[in-house]
Amino acid sequence: MTLLDTPSDSAASAASAKRVFLRDETSAVLRVDESNIPLAETVDIDPMSTAPMIVNMGPVHPSTHGVLRLVLEMQGEQVLRSKPVIGYLHTGMEKTGEQLSFLQGTTNVTRMDYASPLFNELVFSLATEKLLNIEVPPRAQWIRTMMCELNRISSHMLFQATNGMDVGAVSMMLYGNRLREETLRILEKVTGLRMNHNYIRPGGVAVDLPDGWREDIGGLLDMLPPLLDEFDQLLTGQPIFRERLQGVGAINTEECLALGVTGPILRGTGYAWDLRRDMPYLKYDELDFDVIVGSYGDCFDRYAVRLAEARESIRIVRQCIEKMPTGDYRLQDKKVTPPPRARIDESMEALIHHFKIFTEGFKVPEGEVYVSIESPRGELGCYVVSDGGSHPHRMHIRAPSFVNLQTMPHMMQDALVADVVAIISSVDPVLGEVDR
Amino acid sequence: MSIAMLSALSSPLAVDPLFVGGVGLEEVIIVIVKVLIAFVLLLVAVMLMIWFERKLHADMTNRMGPTIAGPFGLLQTLADGIKLFFKEDLIPKKGDRFVFQLAPYLTLIPAFLIFAVVPLGGDFDNNDGTISVFGNTTNFQLADPPIGVLFVLAMSSMAVYGIMLAGWSSGSKYPLFGSVRASAQMVSYEAALGLSLVAVLLKSGSLSTHDIVAGQADGWNWNLWITGFIPFIVFMIASTAELNRPPFDLVEAEQEIVGGFHTEYSSIRFALFFLGEFMNVVTMSAVMVTLFFGGPDGPIPFLASVGWLWGMFWFMLKVVGFCFVFVWFRATLPRLRYDQLMDLGWKLLIPLSLGWLIALAVLDVGRDNGWNTAVVGIGCFAGLMVMGALLTAAVSAGQRKRLAGEGFD
Q1: Helix (H) or strand (E) holding B158
Q2: Best mutation site among A49, A65, A77 for testing chain B: the one with the most B CBs within 10 Å?
Q3: Other Cβ atoms within 10 Å of A246 Cβ, number
Q4: Which of left, alpha, beta for B391 (phi over 0: left; psi -120 to 50: alpha)?
Q5: How many angstroms separate the CA atoms of B323 and B315, rounded?
Q6: pTM of the prediction?
Q7: Is pLDDT at A33 greater than 80 in this prediction?
Q8: CA-CA distance, A139 to B229, in Å (whole number)?
Q9: Is residue A419 exposed (0-12), middle (13-18) or buried (19+ Cβ within 10 Å)?
């Protein structure tokens, strides 16, 4: 009797019936009924059995990107069925968001997708601003655009690192992370933190760009392209790398749309859907950039799309540096943004505003709103319901990683173990965002 | 070739000249000293190899590598060994206890034994590679059995058992994957390894490693060019697979099957696997130098003033060169998938080395019978091309059939 069998009159008929059942249905839960779990000591394993083997890949596994667990039903090296199991990193962040004021909310959401935290802050801020019906100053918008694109570069570099590592090119782990570190250094200089910045806030950004930012960011942008070309040299033309990724985990546009998949996976299939161009927010309509698409929707396309998107982001940041206007970096609305530190010493009203904003927060008009942006992983949405108080009544994040995870069972059908790893890596899920 | 033939004739069983005059106490002591030298040399070489790999790979990826333990981190391996020795030794409850404990030794010991037949130095330019110790002449290698090369093949096949049994006896799923992969991978690459070796044997006319090296004395006799590069390239790829080194490290693919066969191993047993793997890298490099690169033969003829160290210097230099290549592979190449690995082995390496072997044999026969070399050469080339085309056609037809879902009957 294996773990999968259900109690039946005859063990043999149960086993054969089970095998048919396993092959036929495609979306069932790969789990034993809790009341029927046999004790490990009582399970009698037949060493000559050729029945499929169940392998629990993760939650502790070197290449499941955190704590993703995949239940794989395997015949030899081949995956018959797979099922992602999530929830190992669930911390109830959406519920926590209801306990925090709108001003504190960004500190919370930034921890969801920890590889691209600025996008989380941005989408929450945009939603709050839409509820408040305020328009942030142009400089704040340009800063946001630029910082987000820098963050996109760092996120895609992390992908390059883990993707290379997962197909066995161990040096890529360090090459990719080196570029990510260089980008994070800039983010740290501007925001004060490498991750979880809490930089983009409702009403603008936390602080203005530091002195010498043009030289710092310009230096980074000059440094990146030759190093990205090195990735091309090391991986793109490498026959083993292409063999490992081409045709693996292929998915087409219809399937992607049916599953709600967005981001590089959808664009890899040749469908040019990029919210930055199709539903512009911030200053993207004033910027010149290309939407990168693939053609086969396989792992290699997703790799290539991300590499090219990093190059596009470099282009966007260059334009941002050129077009950066002067002016306020945050809204001068005393009810939303705190007054400058100097004003607190001079003005009684400023002190009162400062105190009120940081104790009870600002009131947000009643209503509900959904805002979506293009994060490095796809459409990142934020749905906020306000009851007129200073805390969201309900806050939900539409996490692209969570939705993209649905493609895995589909892509992994009949794949080999090595392909499974390549597929997980090419979906590039961030488990913090999946589980929230 | 003539030298190899001569030496084969002069000592048909390739006995070490040390034993020609009978075995006394002196001879026994010399042999024991040689055993100790080979053993210590290999252990130190492995220690340095691990350090070398870590330093080199660190350098290739903008890191420092080990720096703390000893000068330039040279003692890092020792520190790791001591740490692992004091770790708790876990044996899985569902594992086969005896086999689980036996397996690490099965991988370690063959690596030692292979090193025993490798000639480390000596003067092959002037006096048939022997050195004199306290008035006794002896080969500069621990043992020179007449079946030297077969012994190398046999031992490298034995190493498979260690890995296979380790995975099987762990009683857990990932090691089982590693075990199955190991048995398939190493058995199929053993064939390519052996076939590429036959080309060397054909040219050397002897299985004894000492004679193979003696036949390569004087730079332009290296088997590398005599056998025409292809056997060396096949041997290099097959030995990388045989050693489970990247890009063929499917057996322990960390990203796929966690640690493969050594997932359940800890403490000193894990250290033994680790040691065995690196020892295999050193010995396989030494074997490659012996078979294809003339062993202790250097570009500058034997310098009597430097003595036996001269040959050893060139030998070590070439071994380090191969170790470098192995590290280079690891730093650059992604890992192959299981089916791609099998394709490479069965559809490319084995037919290639087999075809090349036949061509070499035909050329040899032609030379002996005084046939026109150009005609025979062109004929061989054409034959290889035809065989290659037929094989490609057969493989693609098989692929078509498989994709169409038809059976083979």
Answers
A1: helix B148-169
A2: A77
A3: 14
A4: alpha
A5: 12
A6: 0.83
A7: no
A8: 65
A9: buried
**DSSP code per residue over B52-112:** HHHHHHHHHTT-----SSSGGGTTHHHHHHHHHHTS-----TTS-HHHHHHHHHHHHHHHH
Secondary structure class of A395 (helix, strand, coil): strand
Q: Which residues contact A358 (CB under 8 A, 6 or more apart)?
A: A103, A338
From first CA to last CA, the distance across chain A in angstroms is: 38
- Mean pLDDT per block of 10 residues along chain B (409 residues) reads 45 59 76 86 88 90 86 88 88 84 88 85 68 70 82 86 87 86 85 88 84 77 81 90 86 80 86 88 89 78 66 85 91 88 87 86 83 82 87 85 67
Q: Using omega within 30 degrees of 0 as the cis cutoff, is the peptide bond preceding A59 cis?
A: yes
Contact: A164, B173; criterion CB under 8 Å: no
Enumerate the domain spans of chain B: 2-336, 355-404
Nearest residue to A435 (alpha-carbon basis) of A118, A29, A94: A94
Q: Which amino acid is at A326?
A: T
- In single-letter form, the type of residue at position B189 comes to Y
| Residue B237 Cα, gap to closest chain A Cα (Å) | 14
Which parts of A56-137 fold into alpha helices (H)? 93-99, 102-109, 117-132
Residue of B237, B255, B344 for testing the chain A interface, max A β-carbons within 10 Å: B255
Residues 6+ apart with CB under 8 A from B149: B197, B200, B201, B207, B208, B209, B212, B291
Asked if A56 and A82 count as a contact pair (C-beta separation under 8 A), the reply is: no
Which are the contacts of A97, defined by CB distance < 8 A and separation ≥ 6?
A105, A108, A109, A392, A395
What separation in angstroms does the CA of B267 have from each of B89, B108, B117, B206, B252? 5, 15, 31, 43, 17
Contact A289, A149 (CB under 8 A): no
Burial of A334 (0-12, 13-18, 19+ CB in 10 A): middle
Cβ distance B338 to A416 less than 8 Å, yes or no, reads yes
Structure-block tokens of residue B94: 């569902």
Side chain identity at B35, as an amino acid letter? V
ipTM over 0.85: no
Domains, chain A, ranges and CATH? 1-48 (no CATH), 93-435 (1.10.645.10)
pLDDT of residue B229: 84
Q: Is the pLDDT of residue A245 over 50?
A: yes
C-alpha–C-alpha distance, residues B286 and A268, integer Å: 47
Residues 6 or more apart whose CB falls under 8 angstroms from that of A359 comprise none
Question: How many Cβ pairs within 8 Å bridge chains A and B?
Answer: 84
3-state secondary structure of A334: coil
CB B122 within 8 A of CB B139: yes
3-state secondary structure B298-317: CCCCCCCCCCCHHHHHHHHH
CA B196 – CA B292 distance, rounded (Å) = 11
Other C-beta atoms within 10 Å of A230: how many?
A: 12
Closest CA–CA distance from residue B169 to any residue of chain A (Å) = 12
User: Which of A430, A375, A424, A412 lies closest to A165 in space, CA to CA?
Assistant: A424
Helix axes A213-231, A170-191, angle to 10 degrees: 170
Contacts of A205 (CB under 8 A, 6+ apart): A140, A143, A144, A147, A199, A329, A330
For residue B177, the chain A residues in CB contact (below 8 A) are: 77, 417
Q: Which residues of A touch B332 (CB under 8 A)?
A: 169, 171, 234
Q: A190 or B252: whose pLDDT is higher?
A: A190
Tokens of A45: 């394993």
Name the residue in chain A with its Cα closest to that of B253.
Answer: A168
